[in-house]
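Example 3.2
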Amino acid sequence: MKWYMPKTWPKSLKIFGVIAVIVVILVASFSSQRNEYASVGYAGGSSKVTTTAGKASAPAAPVPQPSTAAIAKADGLADYEVYAAEEATAVAGNPGAVARKIIKEGSARIETKEFENSLSAIDALIAQSGGFAEMREVSGSGINRNELRYAYITFRVPAEKFESIMQSMGSVGTVISSNTSGTDITEQYIDLETRIKNLKIQEQTLQDLMAKAEKLEDVITLEARMSELRYQIESKENELKNYDRLVQYSRISVSLSEVVEVTQIKPVPRTMGERISDAFYVAVDDFTTGLEDFAIWAVANWITFIFIIAFAVVFIVVIRKARRKNRAEQKVAPVVDLPKKED
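Structure, written as tokens:
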């Protein structure tokens, strides 16, 4: 059944009906937009605050509050407690977030033709990052003395600069391989914090009992127990401090090798022709390297080499003389006729 407007309606009523329909459509559209804004958390207002007089005024500037870490330092808390307070401040805006404790470690194997420059580049990276070297070992006298040098360096850098330092290893030399890893110790860290809090509660309870103790035996027993608790608290606080050092400063190990020619890293051949070509060049390289190694061995062991040659020449000469002597004796020996048997 079709809806239609009767022709008998007056013109003014028709105009009023059209205006009413338009108003209803606009109101419905506005309501739907408000619902959409509300569904995504739209505040629905400008950044200005309207006063009772109808004028807009800027919002009052927030009063700066001291951070949790600053309060913790002012209270004289331990280092691990200050560090925990700093992380608590960082995640204060997200109550569900957990400050993860990650111990990062990395390693790199590097080849270089300029050994001294590469060592200086590593020292510069350590200094620029604000880190420090844990161990440094250098061996070899140098390529000019036929002894290639090798260095193994272990250093620590701030955790926030760990990735950038690992990416900068290419400035030291040719990176043959690199590796990074991370160990999550969040659960162990939280467990230690909880144990320390419980031990401190027990210590406070014993201190209250100590203040009320009247017998000498009770005082001695309480002091012994408090001494044990104090030892456990200090031990676990040292564990937390060690965890903090491992988390705040990441460890990187670098093995630096001096080479005559840097290893060429080639892509893996895919086609049959590429594989055959690669195998051919590998065979040529191996043969050439073998000849070079033999020549170097001959030069390095020339005395032994000459001795072996001389011994072989003498041995051959002796054998030939012995054979000539045997042949001469066989020619000179008389022929003896054997007597015939009589029938």
